[in-house]
Amino acid sequence: MSNSPIRVYIVDDHLLVQEGIKALLQSEPSFEFVGSALTAEKCLTFFTEQKADVILMDISLPKMDGVQLCSILTEKFPSLKILALSTHNQGTYIRKMMENGAMGYLFKNANKTEIVKAITTVFRGEKFLTYDAENLLRQENLLQSQIPKLTKREKEVLVLVASGMTNGQISEKLFVSIDTVDSHRKNLHTKLNVKNTAQLIKIAGELNLI
Amino acid sequence: MSNSPIRVYIVDDHLLVQEGIKALLQSEPSFEFVGSALTAEKCLTFFTEQKADVILMDISLPKMDGVQLCSILTEKFPSLKILALSTHNQGTYIRKMMENGAMGYLFKNANKTEIVKAITTVFRGEKFLTYDAENLLRQENLLQSQIPKLTKREKEVLVLVASGMTNGQISEKLFVSIDTVDSHRKNLHTKLNVKNTAQLIKIAGELNLI
DNA sequence: AATTATCTCACGTAAAAGGGTGAATTTGTG
DNA sequence: CACAAATTCACCCTTTTACGTGAGATAATT
């Protein structure tokens, strides 16, 4: 098992990254480069006939993205180990990939040692998260937990306010009284610690609540 | 002149991209790979002793970014041709790099043909903008031209409003009367075609005006 | 079952914003 | 210089928000 090389495939729309991986793997006898693709479609075509042990996968692919490709591949080939390879420094992407069957997440600025370690780790069936990715997830969780929990109604009112509607118009739309809408806005102010509509909409925008 | 190969240097914090370029250039006899760096600092160190004809440069580098590095290099080595190599699909970056002395802009998803063409083009002293980059600039210019031109004072008032200040507070801060601030806000409403503060701050956020 | 959270509504006052109109002064530009 | 744009200010009136306080009804959670 440890004698035969790990067969590695790569799908990335950046030719340069493909070539880079290829070059790196060629200098390591324990790996065998079995193919590459620029798009998810071509990757799927490859796997109908051939196989690999580990696939390095970019997230941002044209048309079908990495997340979709990931879920398809894990379903069809449960033994295939997927290692996400991306520049995306947003925790949501990391989370999505791992939820869809990826065994690891690597940033493209990784050095050779880290890449080798990542591939061998996921090949063994263990998860691999680069230190930066772990950090990112932790920080984002912190931020997320600092966002006050708004109720369904409050979120509803918030987006309507942001759309420019007055309390009167909102009350008609939601079939409640103006005073009720007023109450929700007061609660929004309290929860988000603002004192007027301008501040409210600004921070709501920053928190992607609208 | 066409006999001696074009000496190419690359600075990019992604090792994989470096390796990819290296691999591509090795298969082309008209190019000579003379070195690479992961950071701007190491790049500058290299150029104190050695030289190159064309430098491929990523924009997002740790610490010192590509724009700074670009302006330094063009000043010290006017004959050096800089080719920006980036995944950044924001027109501002393209514009900044070209303003700071870059001769070309290439996306990292470029294929071999395009990369070769880009290098040879900038080596000849001509500008090279990949089709996508040109498109992007054109589209952004269109969008930009659709944003109403706000006066200096209006922008000032806008950010103060977004910060949560009332007309009274703004008037004190700017040493003008409340009526004046009121006027500016009315003009903002007219120009941005909104009818209240909520809408104003929302679209201002979307247009990156605050 | 008991407690808590959410949603609802009411009333009153004060503060702020919205809307219209007009106009003087300064600044910028052809 | 002349014309346009920007900045400034005033006054009126209406609408909308903001803020406090209290409270009943329903849904969710322990």
Summarize this entry quickly.
Two copies of one chain form a homodimer. Helix content of chain A is 54%, strand content 14%. Chain A has ten helices and six strands.
Can you give a write-up of this model?
2 copies of one chain form a homodimer. The first copy, chain A, is an alpha/beta fold and 210 residues long. Helices cover 54% and strands 14% of the residues of chain A. Chain A has helices at residues 15-26, 40-49, 66-76, 91-99, 112-123, 131-146, 152-162, 167-174, 178-192, 197-206; strands at 6-11, 31-37, 54-57, 81-86, 104-107, 128-129. A 6-stranded parallel beta sheet of chain A has the order 2-1-3-4-5-6, sandwiched between helices. In chain A, helix 8 packs across helix 9. Chain A is elongated and about 75 Å long. Chain A binds chain B through residues 13-24, 87, 108-112, 115, 161-164, 166, 194-202, 205-206, 210, and chain B through 13-24, 87, 108-112, 115, 161-164, 166, 194-202, 205-206, 210. Chain A binds a DNA duplex (30 and 30 nucleotides) through helix 7 and helix 9.
